[in-house]
Design brief:
Length: 291
């Protein structure tokens, strides 16, 4: 039997050597996709490299380097202490106002930096998204991980202020890492939502700084939650950062706990984290075409 040009007997594969079952099955995408958290662990080296790259880029060719992580909350603390603590005489529930406002500012600075960085992380890495395969969820996670370095540095002045004002610590202090971890999860959930929406709707890039700024004023950072009238407390509870901020102050300064607000904030954080992860995975297949 004559063979087509360019083919020989050795290039033909016997039918008997083919597998009985298909090696790859192509199915239509489902409405709910798996998170594939195992892939995140398999590509953990990529997460580390991207996180380390973001840290080096952030402070590259800067004179103060990582000290910029301290300058922002410390300068805001001095300004707020003068205008709101001294001139406006906003109450701080028995805590020295500079210490009161700085304890909220360091957490808020991390949250705003993490959400902004992770929200813009995908559109800031178009070549990486379109040319290399890896779980795309690693990109916003790496941006948030880089902000953790700033968070660790900003805790140093907090400890110094607590020593300066002779703050007595109690066993509640042991709950601080847990509350900070919940804030990290909240930033990750919001960041994944913003990152996924930012690829499809570039308006998010311009609206995000405005939304972050507005979010600061509806969060008890420069004022205590008790300053809000009782009839509006339910609205404040819908802000997940409100209960977490008050919980951190209760842990740091041995204050009374608002377990209801803390439970509501934790529940909203869980919903945002899970929904953000699923929405991110759902829209992930179109990132390379849109970014």
């Amino acid at each position: 039997m004559a063979l087509p040009n360019g083919l020989s007997d050795s290039s033909l594969v016997p039918v008997s050597s083919l597998p009985e079952q298909p090696l790859v099955t192509i199915c239509p995408s489902r409405k709910w996709v798996a998170l594939n958290l195992r892939d995140l662990w398999a590509y953990r080296d990529v997460l580390y490299l991207l996180m380390w790259r973001d840290i080096k880029v952030r402070y590259k060719q800067t004179f103060f380097g990582v000290l910029w992580a301290l300058i922002q909350p410390l300068s805001a603390m001095f300004v707020f202490s003068f205008f709101f603590g001294k001139l406006a005489a906003i109450p701080s529930e028995g805590i020295p106002y500079p210490l009161f406002t700085y304890s909220g500012l360091l957490l808020w600075t991390f949250f705003s930096t993490a959400v902004t960085s992770s929200g813009n992380s995908l559109i800031g890495n178009p070549n990486l998204i379109t040319k290399v395969y890896f779980p795309r969820m690693i990109v916003p996670c790496a941006a948030l991980g880089a902000a953790l370095v700033d968070l660790a540095v900003t805790f140093i002045p907090l400890i110094a202020l607590m020593v300066y004002y002779h703050i007595t610590v109690a066993w509640n202090l042991l709950l601080t890492p847990l509350l900070v971890f919940v804030i990290i999860l909240l930033a990750l959930g919001v960041g994944m939502w913003m990152a996924a929406l930012n690829v499809r709707y570039r308006d998010v890039r311009y609206a995000l700084p405005f939304l972050i700024q507005m979010w600061m004023f509806i969060t008890p950072i420069i004022y205590p939650a008790s300053l809000i009238p009782a009839e509006w407390q339910w609205l404040l509870a819908l802000n997940p950062l409100a209960g977490l901020m008050e919980g951190c102050r209760a842990a740091l300064f041995d204050r009374e706990w608002d377990w209801t607000a803390l439970a509501i904030s934790s529940g909203i954080t869980f919903v945002l984290l899970v929904s953000g992860a699923y929405a991110f995975r759902r829209m992930e297949k179109s990132f390379a075409d849109l970014v």
